[in-house]
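F.,

This is the one I mentioned.
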């Protein structure tokens, strides 16, 4: 059985603030990270990504554990039934006492922008005219920082832990649970489908954003490593995005061939200005296809890699 799959993906945000930071006066700021040269990149937190993945799993018909948690003040005690609830299995849990906890088999990075934040803002108002009939009453002005950017994120899934719950993660004197291999496969396949349908975050009523991948690099591995993390880069030139292939090729070449059991790449046709070039280059280390074909191919590969 393979040890892990890793997926690194690019999403596009045309004009939004998907995962805001603090409010400063009447300005809703973005989450940002400062580069060594003082430049600023926007990012969407890993916690927000996990929330969106949970929501999409629910959309796909999976029952989540959250409605069945016990809430007392600020304490939330999960049901601790990872055999029953996919989110407890894939994303882990911790009860209020700390006696029962599961480290997430699904690790995600923040979605980090590839291009700097330039200070754009959306201006809004909460007008009283509709209520008072008097424009002179005015309204409350507010601003929201927003960006147009490509964001890159990575997911690592420990295949040998999905659906396998040691007794110490379930409580004192509990017995180990191991789900049937078919159920374990279905859960990982559902996670990939949730990523393919990704959307969410704040302000979706007026800043709805499609966060499904425009480019995706997938590997099934005999070791646990986020293979493509920090290797997917792009630049903007003459009105088009160009994907840099050399860092991806180098990342793959760092692993011995017998450790990388499958490498697949998916792209959105017409999205990259150097599409033909990237197809030719990436074929040296893996199979390349449009995203629409890649998702079912990845799901089939997961079934192949998760065997008894």
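My design for it:
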């Amino acid at each position: 059985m393979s040890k892990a799959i890793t997926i690194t993906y690019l999403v596009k945000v045309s004009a939004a603030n998907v995962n805001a930071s603090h409010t400063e006066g009447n300005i809703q700021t973005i989450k940002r990270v400062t580069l060594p040269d003082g430049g600023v990149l926007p990012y969407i937190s890993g916690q927000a990504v996990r929330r969106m993945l949970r929501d999409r799993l629910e959309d796909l018909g999976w029952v989540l554990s959250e409605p069945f948690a016990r809430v007392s003040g600020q304490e939330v005690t999960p049901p601790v039934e990872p055999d029953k609830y996919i989110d407890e299995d894939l994303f882990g849990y911790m009860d209020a006492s700390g006696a029962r906890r599961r480290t997430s088999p699904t690790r995600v990075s923040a979605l980090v922008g590839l291009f700097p934040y330039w200070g754009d803002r959306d201006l809004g108002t909460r007008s009283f005219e509709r209520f008072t009939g008097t424009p002179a009453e005015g309204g409350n002005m507010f601003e929201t920082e927003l960006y147009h950017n490509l964001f890159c994120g990575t997911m690592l899934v420990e295949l040998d832990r999905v659906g396998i719950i040691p007794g110490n993660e379930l409580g004192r004197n509990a017995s180990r649970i191991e789900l049937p291999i078919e159920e374990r496969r279905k859960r990982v396949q559902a996670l990939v489908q949730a990523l393919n349908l990704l959307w969410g975050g704040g302000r979706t009523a007026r800043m709805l954003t499609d966060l499904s991948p425009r480019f995706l690099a997938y590997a099934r591995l005999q070791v646990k490593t986020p293979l493509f993390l920090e290797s997917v880069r792009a630049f903007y030139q003459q009105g088009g995005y160009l994907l840099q292939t050399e860092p991806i090729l180098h990342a793959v070449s760092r692993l011995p061939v017998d450790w990388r059991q499958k490498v697949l790449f998916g792209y959105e046709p017409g999205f990259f200005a150097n599409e033909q070039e990237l197809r030719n280059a990436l074929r040296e280390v893996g199979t390349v296809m449009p995203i629409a074909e890649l998702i079912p191919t990845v799901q089939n590969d997961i079934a192949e890699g998760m065997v008894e």
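The chain has a mean pLDDT of 94.

Talk soon.
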